[in-house]
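check this:
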Amino acid sequence: MRKLPPLHAVRIFETCARVLNFSVAARELCLTHSAVSHQIRQLETWLGQPLFTRHASGVALTAAGQTLLRSATQSLGLLEDTCQQLLSHTRGQALTLAAPGSFMALWLIRRLEHFEREYPGLRLQLQTQGDYQDLSAQRIDALVVSARPPWPKGVHALTLFGDRAGPVCAPDWSPMPTQVGELLGAPLLYTLSRREAWIDWAELNELDPARLHLTRHFDNLQLMLEAAIAKLGIAIAPQPLVQRELQQRRLIAPLGFTSSPSEFALCVQSSRAQEPHLAALCTWMAEQTRLPSETLS
């Protein structure tokens, strides 16, 4: 067995080392700053030495970081070239769509059968890893993000729906919050990929985030929602991705949902937006966002 660090962490390191700024790297990778920092810390722990020195204006590579960057750039480049050669033989009428796992599991997957009926000659290949850099390099054809405009240069973004988020809990959770301030003593659940979700929600509702009691974290939204259903705490979730649980009364949203500046968007390269297959995908996704969610129950 090869003794290698996680490829995802190496890929994040390569981006951070290239731009020498974790915030810029996070935007390029469609991740949060905390998620990027977490992966870098894991990689440094795995290697047993620091890869960056931190300072006020950004970061700088250590000697170990410079050595790893040379190897990572060469290895990732070779892997990318090989994968592109293999994909060129199999793509045909396929589009590669990258999206967060929670979006795919809770919104997209149950709609795919309809897509394949509407476009029988077009196949969607789904993956959870992808960012604007991959889109620009055409390693993927389309990308779903939850982010704030403006969008990067050269990106055509179709807004799918606003990123309205709010607290959700089991219907028999006690004590049931009826006001924003009543969440201050409650056990709150969050995901590692969106650790800042409670902070953003609190600030939008004029609540001091420092007073929130964040107790448990989860790798993904689905696990967090199941924990909320099991009455382990109160979760925070985007309304479009929790609609089925609300309709089935597995969860309720006692305080409703709050609009944020972010939105879910389907991104493609501006230069490719009129390609027939990508245009078809954009049209279909737009139509799906206008359908009542109960039609897919």
